[in-house]
């Protein structure tokens, strides 16, 4: 396939107009010695039909999609109304650039404005940005922002935060002199209050926790925020399962200063980990420290309401090395999907979805706990994920389940050696009672 | 379709009790025991309540308020707004890919891993590098990852150094990324050709300097002809050369950064490799490195052993993780599709026709608009509004007037070294007809600037909204809808 | 997005050598032996040659020159322009359906046959008929098939008869379909209520008459309250009652044609059952019949026996085949999806809210526009331009002016018994807000007609083209592009 | 799911405005005795998720799609570029009505005008309409039109015409006094010239043939047209495989007066037989006898070019019982798909596709003929289909092939008892050499 649009005649006419005889002459300023003297070593061009067959074959090599899976841990399989695909795939949404020219970008700009509003409503905070790359880099941006706001060097981060989010934060802070201290968890799967008390001091910029945390357990955001504020540190809540915001009290109402996280649950496909949808909301007074793009309302010369990208003075193309972040291109199309998803599910639908997740997870936890030898690891409240402990190494259980076409959960041995044979089980509204019973039965067999 | 129609915010058409999304009746007990002890909310104040027909109309109408590549020429300099193949949209969404969970065991997602490995391999060949990481979610993310690898490599040598050199023509993300890496930035002036002043560089290049970040072709669309000498100077002082590959569209198949002394490079798949911009993302900014830096690659790394693929985490010397999971996977699928459909010849034709189209526009507009640098152009050309300024007309006025002709304006926000810049990048997929429509519009506007500047000042005239007050927007920011109390 | 932009014909942007569609290299011998002896052509003169990006822009731009349900209220009377659910578009295109070949053995397409059987069953329940055929491709095709069955049934009795009675308010397809069936048409006048004049019918109903074709509610949106008496009169003389079910949207779940004496009925799935109109089709016009006519159904007929489905061809008395294969299958899938998603309550709500919305509009516009018939309205109401005519304004002017408000005009071409008709059918899926926007626009226009008729005469003002010369188009027809010689 | 858009308050306000207390009052004019006193006996409403699962389950009951199939005979599996789906699915194309209001329908109208042009170019005739239901009803319309044009009562139709098309024509003409006479075929699979000569007389309105005919054989359109014209009858050519028009001489250039047929091959999915795309092209002087909608060019009050539906005086909504046809809604969206398909494939691509069909069919015919006992039934030239004769009843061969996942062809015993154990084999560009070899091998086994 070629996507060029010039006929041979066009090409000749244009070369003449450009005052050259051949295209090669146009590359004159590239030193002869570095030019590539051979053709690229790439497979020969495929036609559309061959390309489709090739990719479909590669896709079929994935042996995961057909299985009954209870994987979660930062990426969630949720119902997505058909309107999300049909509307978000429109060329007018897919093929424009960042809305730098507002007069011809009112569609995208108004949608960002609506997205910011929806995120604020869910987070219970005053302002939100247009998106960040994903939950992990969102966490890193939140940490950097906390340092900018407080001018303090130390950040406490809970061990119950998504392991990969913690790794990314570590990578980001390495070169800017932020000390990370990890907060251990207790029997209930929540941050250990005592250790927090000891670690908190006047050099602490923020207490960073995730709720529901990586174990699916809901942290006590109110207590954590109180503790942080007691030392004038910020309370930063990370959210990996954004759907929980529809059911759990809004973090902003519990004293949280910054909410950052992952909104993939809102109509963005699993797609092997990306593209996903990082988001951030915070208190109004942090506005000028906020990373990423923000859309705002204004009027045109005739007084009509319109929307524009605003507060660009925070951003790299104006501030350069003094910008609040280096982010430029973000995840606009994913934010669009989320906006369509949220407005379609609506006030009632979104809460119903969240409730079904909680109830199905509770049912699954109970069914699994009734399997001889299996117990729930943590006593804390959970949303749609929970950790179970099997009397056998999880790898062995997993192998048996897999043979039966089931992916029962995520083994935690690698990320949490201290938990031994535990596994994280996720149950969303897409799992039927029969699916859950099938899992429980299979685990029972695997252990008998 | 009608200019006057103003689309309300969804919150303004919401009314209690309406709903679109519904779920099957719950098939398990009603219990909420699992959440006992957690603080729950009773509602989501102000959340919208509308019907499905209302949602469809809302977004269909909003979509028509956007200009886009599917509607016409989009000569936004430095953004490479080329055609995004529809087949790639379909293939990247195949259930076999879209339904794969990132925590799925590697044995069950061999197809996904094959996609990653293949794309890495092809990018290495195209850029002339030894290895690529596909983790970065965008160009700026790639810069950060690239500079982190440079820093880690230097630290391993015993000294991370303090400074990064960046030409004054560079994109804003360059200094910003260097800064997050803990480096201070020293600006390098451009010479009269618009390229790096080699003498100046030689002075600036000390043992304090970790790296030079060079964009090639630079943001003027000019190729840094001294690139080899420049690399030599940097290397001689123990520094490394980082190339911002956002403008790879000018080079594919013609010259490989790895062959001109570049140590680290990022490429914007959402530019050179045709993945759509989506109104601001998602994109992907893979980073390529030379052998010496391979140990620094972020984890995980995909490894292939006789046809089977595995993920390697245990890599001493790695900078660590830069993003959860494996990057913007479905964007990577699109880029792979693009390379496979073009093949060796097609990939070279990208650069050939991108440069031809840009030079055609340049030649046809010379005389109508001022060209600060006479140096030959590659894939884009940067004019300025100097001739029009005499009539009180700025590049902003020219840009807004182009909209009246059904066209998208060029880039104006940079390069900062050209005042009143008009950075024009047509890309290779444009037809002569569309190029000519743009040229004629620009010529008409040049004439209007002389004869009737008022019409430029008041432009645009045909859009849903006229010129918007961006100052007011920043002065008292209204960043969300709020229920009228 | 820009009013002034005129999209060329694809032939006008074609240039030699350009191409989009490519196929894999041929993997068999080059021979053309198979065609030896056949006259071959050397080229397709004038056929377009364009690139894929050009195709995408061409159709994306053209699409924006259409108004549609996804953009706003479409109150086109008698057309039931309701919302078309997006999920039904996806499901009707599932590979499991889309890839099935019509010659595939029945055992291998049990899913397709199940779709047909289920839809037949549900339509029988909704219309109160004993059987349905899904073959007809549209409403008019359904009328033809229905009348053929009536004729066959009468012939079996020994006399096909000669005449079909049709009210003067009927849609043009009714007489036309009767004619193709070999019948002559006798028009029945409407009475002052806009309904069939029973006395007149009684006179007209002789032994010569094969059937009465009645639309109920009729094209005035008025329910034929005497329908039972009417059916009695027709049956008493040995005739049959055909009902044009295009207006079923007013009746679903409230009253069933089969319960009011109808012998044969067609239903427009692309109206009542939400399958999209696609700018003029494809639709589907299933026909339901009473027990006595079941033997006349066109072949093949789907038969179910303990869960397995088969096609029956051997049906003595059938009118034969009316279309190749099994009708507009993917349209039938959409209708099935719609019924399944609505359920018993939802299907009744179609009629309830369609009638509520129509009556809301009627009440709000009474006084502003003349209502020829005071009779209560069902799912649509028919005003006329009588009050506006006094100011020289016609229904056409009103229609074109509505376009300036971002709305689609009502139906004007019929019913022929209302001069200057404005037939308004909002459908049940509209929001109060959209209904009010329409009402306000109509009220504004009524005022403009008195105060400033000129603006109506010159409307529309906001579209890509202004009022078009339809007379000239018919006088010297130019029906295709031709290469400028 | 419900697609209503009124809140309870809206409903109450509107009832009040309409001057009634309940919705039931609005049905006052429906006689009490006929009203439905019970709820409809339909399955309870399904949510979108349940609906999707239900339809996907039904779809999976189809055991055809995965098989290697060589079925043709009026419905053809061809390559369709991705742009056809992405563009034709746009709401602006899917959700408008017939373009009665040209000022807000220029998209659809210009596309019809382009479609008419493309059909004229392929058929080699002066005018074409906007579409008809399908090939079979198109054939019937052509027959009725021939009678209107000539005023003659008799129509000769070839037995080599698609059997279902012939059945539909028979059903249509039954009540309008047209006599149909079937023309037999000879050893070459073409119309038997002698029988034609005998059947042709001055009462003959038209000679109706299909080319390539149902056996895949290309008829001698020129000779047939000459013969017809010799008696002042019309030459009517039916086309079931429209792709053949890209390679075979344009019928109009061979003297054909009317071409009608099926254009499903141009980007319209098989979809179990519909919706498909009927089309008709003819000589300019038949314009006022042409059935169906036609778009024409005109200008607006400012002199801008625009398009409208024209010559409506032929149609039912004006002419009523004297209309040229009762057709109203046609197949516009399928015509749109065909237009996108044809403009994407283009002059070179479409011809290349046609050539590949002919060559792959020729290769398949040769491979199959080399199977002991198998022979090609007809000697005439063929495009992408041909008839083979097996030494065993085809049903038996078919059973064996099916067990091997292959649908080898369409048995002709039912429609052409005189052909005994013959089968119609179709080979398009989508079949690879390997597919064809696999078929030949399987047939060999089935016979050994
Ligand atoms: C020269 C240059 N470098 C870097 C970037 C940043 O890339 P991204 O927006 O993908 O982060 C851009 C984007 O416009 C660019 O033009
Ligand atoms: C009352 C009535 N009857 C019949 C028809 C014809 O239906 P179709 O266009 O599907 O052939 C229509 C279409 O507008 C109609 O309104």
Q: Layout of SSEs?
A:
The complex is a heterotetramer, with 2 copies of chain A (448 residues) and 2 copies of chain B (485 residues).
Chain A: H1 8-17, H2 48-60, E1 68-69, H3 82-88, H4 91-94, H5 106-123, E2 127-128, H6 135-150, E3 154-158, H7 163-173, E4 179-183, H8 193-199, E5 204-210, H9 221-230, E6 234-239, E7 258-262, E8 278-282, E9 295-299, E10 305-309, H10 316-319, H11 332-369, E11 375-376, E12 385-389, H12 394-403, E13 406-407, E14 410-411, E15 422-426, H13 433-447
Parallel strand pairs in A: 1-13, 3-4, 3-5, 5-6, 6-7
Antiparallel strand pairs in A: 2-8, 7-8, 9-10, 11-12, 12-15, 14-15
Chain B: H1 52-63, H2 86-92, H3 95-98, H4 110-127, E1 131-133, H5 139-157, E2 163-167, H6 173-180, E3 184-188, H7 198-204, E4 209-215, H8 227-236, E5 240-244, E6 264-266, E7 287-289, E8 301-305, E9 308-312, H9 329-365, E10 381-384, H10 386-389, H11 395-404, E11 421-424, H12 432-451, H13 453-457, H14 470-475
Parallel strand pairs in B: 2-3, 2-4, 4-5, 5-6
Antiparallel strand pairs in B: 1-7, 6-7, 8-9, 10-11
Helix pairs in contact in B: 2-9, 4-9, 5-6, 9-12
Bound molecules: pyridoxal-5'-phosphate (2 copies).
